[in-house]
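User: As part of a screening pipeline, I want to sanity-check one entry by hand. Below is the sequence and the SMILES for pyridoxal-5'-phosphate. Please return the complex as structure tokens so I can compare it with the automated output.
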Amino acid sequence: MIKDGYYGEFGGAYIPEMLYPPVEELRLNYEKILASKSFQNEFQELLKSYVGRPTPLYFAKNLSKKIGCKIYLKREDLCHTGAHKINNTVGQILIAKHLGKNRIIAETGAGQHGVATATACALMGMECLVYMGEKDIKRQAPNVSRMKMLGAKVVPATSGSKTLKDATNEAIRDWINNPESTHYIIGSVVGPHPYPDLVAQLQSVISKEVKKQLKELEGRDYPDYLVACVGGGSNAAGLYYDYLEDERTKIIAVEAAGKGILTSESAATTQLGNVGIIHGSKTLLMQNKDGQITEPYSISAGLDYPGIGPMHAHLFTSQRAEFISIDDHEAMQAGLALSKTEGIIPAIETSHAFAIFKHKDFQPEDVLVFNLSGRGDKDLATYIDYFKLEE
Ligand SMILES: *Cc1c(COP(=O)(O)O)cnc(C)c1O
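Assistant: Here is the complex for your manual check:
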């Protein structure tokens, strides 16, 4: 699907010249490293013994009965640290090691990617700096504590709106100044080539496991539908990866509509966005007519991103994937329903995926695989506030 760094018209590496050396070093080496025996041995071993893979593919009997089709849940919420993000950070740490780097930087908004990066750094004994907007540091105190406990240095970004995009600017500035020693771990299938491809390949373990598990459970290795939520798009890319060319499987991508696509508070990129450049990549993003990026909104911190990765932009425009946007209210209700139906409290990001049933009909014989991208512990306060469960 990717050719010379592009998915159709999307992708590429639109970066300042000063960033060219480290990005080029990564581009020239990543495929070789990914294919090497030493990388694969170490990666597979860590996925198994540290991350806890393979994660189960669980047949959700109650939910299936309620909806009237066959629903399987890929349990990424059972990964170490509670979401799929660790697949990527463990992989990229090993890449960094192969490139001879001893220092890791990352940016984080809600702190989930920061925690996954700090975790992998602690494991591998690497120095770790996580850039985070000053405002986010205040809003996401538990994740800041986690990162500190894991030995990472959390560096406040004090410019601009003091949120994710400012943290990204600070991280890029750091990388420009330390290209030799430092690897920059990006947390989703976004950023300049080769990041979208690198992160998709590291997350594709999800897809590979589903194939094997579905063959055992259903007697065929492909489902009728794959469903995942899309922030930047890494858990979705991981789920779709081995099925992208298999037209028997339909792909559904779920984005956050926030308070609704007709309001100014939304993150439904395919509905509200158009072609532009964000974080070094040509893709679909939400911007005003002057090309300034619009502030996104979603109740879930992980879907609160003004763009989507270039692979997803291509899946959308080529109509390989169907995009459904789900608002805060629908997502919260779906999260509560899954908790009560299956005894699994999903992350609010993930809850968006489970709200598609009002938008789409399925046949009794349809087999659906949902990516259960993360667990809801981090979101309990938000759920409780929303439903006033304490009353
Ligand atoms: C970060 C996050 C997401 C969104 O990121 P993607 O790159 O789109 O996968 C989704 N679910 C959970 C649980 C997350 O932590």
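Points to compare against the pipeline: The chain has a mean pLDDT of 96. Residues 83, 85, 112, 188, 229-236, 302-303, 347, 349-350, 373-374 surround pyridoxal-5'-phosphate (CB under 6 Å).
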